Amino acid sequence: MSDSGSLTDLISSEIFNGRPPNLPRRYREQAAVDLADIQGNVLRGYTHPVAAYIFLRIDDVPRAKALLKRLMPQITSGVPWGDTAPATALQFALTYAGLERVGVSPEILATFPEEFRQGMAARAELLGDRGPSAPDKWESGLGTGEAHALLTVWAIDEAHLERVREELRAVGAAAGATTVINETRAQALSGGRDQFGFFDGISQPSVEGTGMKGRPGDGQPNGAGQWRDVATGEFVHGYVDEDGDLPAAPAAPFDRNGTFMVYRKLATDVAAFRKFVQEAGKQYPGGPEMLAAKIVGRWRDGTPISVSPDKPDPEVVKDPARINDFSYASDPQGLRCPHGAHIRRMNPRDTEGFFGGRLSNRHRIIRRGRTYGPPLPEGAMEDDGQERGLAFVCFNASIWRQFETVQGLWIDDGDPFGQGADKDFLVGCPGNGNQKMTIPGNPPFFAAPQPRLVTMRGGEYLYQPSISALEWLVSADR
Amino acid sequence: MRDKHNRTGTAYALTTFTAILPGHVDEVRATIEGVPRGADSPLARLTQLHTSRLQIFDKLVYQGAPQKYDELKNAYLVFTAAFDGDVDRFLDDVATTVPEADSWWRHCVAYPGLADHGAFRRWIYHNQLDTSLFGVNSQNVSVSQVKESLAARERVVQFAIAAQGLDATSLQQRFTETFMKEKAGH
Fold it and tell me: Of A149, A376, A424, B15, whose CB neighbour count within 10 A is largest?
């Protein structure tokens, strides 16, 4: 898997650190944002190998506050931790029901935006969560108003994760403070791949002032053939956004260094993907692997098809300056990367009709998801009945403007890309059976009908407060 | 005359400001918020309609610095519609096929009801303003022509998917079967 590194390299990078050897580090510089007050996972990705998404119902408010107070030292901020990651890193976020439950005043609650107050389940139609993905089919505890908080636990191994879990049992449940109502254990798959077998998590917006130097392609096109960082306020409240203004934020103490978090547990049908690619690939002139790459927009190893349309290129993947450096303006017909390809929909960059990126810059999201469940064994063409997928997490200053635009207009509809009623072929919810994906060429190839590859298992909209707002929440004298 | 400022190609844009009776604003707001949107809208029965909007103007925002609200002395129900063909015909169709229109206009000053088509038309024209600037997606093609074209496009796309990979002879045969038969059937 690591073709260049020694065994020692592999152990130190992947097993101890969780960082896949093919994931290049980002350069650092002086930060201009208040990293110490922003919860850590917003502006940087964690590479801990195991994680758990634990949804809590708050049964007793004072006791739940005491529990949170105990956990506070483990809640990490955005301050860089040097070369050694802490054994556990916690993040804490609340649903609207949770903010109500802990007694945030109606005046403050009223300043949260409508989509957040309604919650994800109420927005299902807009998001394309229909049929088997509809809220009435979700796992228990999600989408019902019962979930008050999400504790995300990152750990260097299962044993450390268990310690936090034990604390929740002993202090949370035993004392009647909180009840775990939904839990998903996630672990990074080898080589940073997703369940479909693609190197994932490559493209993230580079954010102004964070001290993390972006790679070419991470930010927004700057109009001069290069890239610039995305304004901080697109992802964290209290900073200037792409509009040159402070983003609409909830009232103090939630007006600064906090952000909205979207959680979606997405089950993936890997066997259906493999079967589709194999069958349709017999007809597609480029064969199954190229068809898979056209659907995603990258080859399995992460090579962008916009950079290398004919074959994966390990040299590109190894080079931080090239792995994400491409533009769609030079490919108006989609002959390299189809307009309907997953990555072109998720982040259209400077695609025709997006005015050189001026219509994509306000719809960026920071993705912090993790795969869950065991991978389907290599070569298996039938489902093994195991639950697997992606615990999708993203951060944005406005759920409506950012996540819901991407999910509702770019994944669940094809119009913005001239694709009619066709949805994102990889992750979209197939509708009436007429959905397809057009792969431009001479002649074009139609991948059809769209199989259901992703099924929603449940989700929540959350607010992830700043560290100081969390301290305010747990303070007894309120 | 009316056409001069309100027509682009075959599309006509109607703009009406009808004054809302004192004390009725909340009820009108609740009514128009409850009108189904899209294909379920009662206005969707109007086959010549491109787009339509119902909204309330009770304050206007000054779009400079500093932004401030100008409260109006009277609230207006604003109805806008872009449609194909003749205005009289459109208003008669509204009166005939959209009885729900009573539920929002009955809160407006001097509304005569829908039963007397002539009175309804005169009331609308009395409250009409020139539109001057408007946009429709297809200014020289009627809504029904657009729908027919989309349906034809969908048939061709579905044919292309089904016929993908056929050799030239089979492709021609399949094309003849699918489209010539369809033509003969029409």
Answer: A424
pLDDT band at residue A20 under the 50/70/90 scheme: low
- Of the two residues A146 and B2, the one the predictor is more confident about is A146
Chain B hits for A445, CB-CB cut-off 8 Å, are 164
Please state, in angstroms and rounded to a whole number, the distance separating the CA atoms of residues A389 and B32.
42
Partner B contacted by A222 (CB < 8 A)? no
Q: Are residues B29 and B117 in the same domain?
A: yes
Residue ranges making up the domain that contains B31? 2-129
Contact B161 A436 (CB under 8 A): yes
Measured between CB atoms, does A283 come within 8 Å of chain B? yes
Tens digits of residue pLDDT in A299-323: 999 999 999 999 999 999 999 999 9
Which residues of chain A neighbour B161 with C-beta distances below 8 Å? 436, 446, 448
Question: CB–CB of B164 and A436 under 8 A?
Answer: no
B41 lies in the same domain as B10: yes
CA A193 to CA A370: how far, in whole Å? Answer: 10
| Paired strand residues for A149 | A56, A94
Option in B154, B160, B165 nearest A283 (CB): B165
Q: How far is A434 from chain B (nearest CA, A)?
A: 8
Average pLDDT over residues A131-158: 97
Give the three-class secondary structure for B112. coil
3-state secondary structure of A138: coil
Q: Is residue B134 part of a domain?
A: no
Judge contact between B74 and B20, C-beta under 8 A.
yes
Residue B159 lies in a domain: yes
The answer to the question of residue B173 being in a domain is yes
Tally of CB atoms within 10 A around A274: 20
Query: Residue A24 CA to chain centroid, in angstroms?
Result: 19
Inspect the interface and report whether the beta carbons of A283 and B161 lie closer than 8 Å.
no
User: How many whole angstroms separate alpha carbon A431 and alpha carbon A448?
Assistant: 12
pLDDT in tens, A432-474: 888 999 999 998 999 999 999 999 999 999 999 999 999 999 9
Domains in chain B: how many in total? 2
- What mean pLDDT is reported for chain A? 92
- Structural domain spans, chain A: 266-459
- Nearest by CB to residue A283, choosing from B154, B160, B164, is B164
User: Tokens in use for B56?
Assistant: 């309330």
Residues of B with CB under 8 A from a CB of A: 154, 157-158, 160-161, 164-165
* Residue B177 and residue B109 in one domain: no
- Cβ atoms within 10 Å of A349's Cβ, excluding its own: 21
- Which neighbouring-strand residues pair with B81? B14, B52
Question: How far is it, in rounded angstroms, from Cα B142 to Cα B139?
Answer: 8
- Exposed e or buried b per residue across A446-461, where buried means at least 16 C-beta atoms within 10 angstroms of its C-beta: bbbebeebbbbbbbbb
Hey, is the C-beta of A125 within 8 angstroms of any chain B C-beta?
Answer: no
Span A33-42, pLDDT tens digits: 999 999 999 9
Other Cβ atoms closer than 10 A to B65: 6
B11, B81: one domain: yes
- Chain B residues within 8 A of A446 when measuring between CB atoms: 157, 160-161, 164
Going by C-alpha positions, the residue among A210, A208, A221, A246 that lies closest to residue A397 is A246
pLDDT above 50: residue A5: no
Contact assignment for A283 to B157 by CB distance below 8 Å: no
Q: Which of B157, B166, B171 to mutate to test the interface with A (most CBs of A within 10 A)?
A: B157
Please indicate, yes or no, whether residues B54 and B76 belong to a single structural domain of this protein: yes
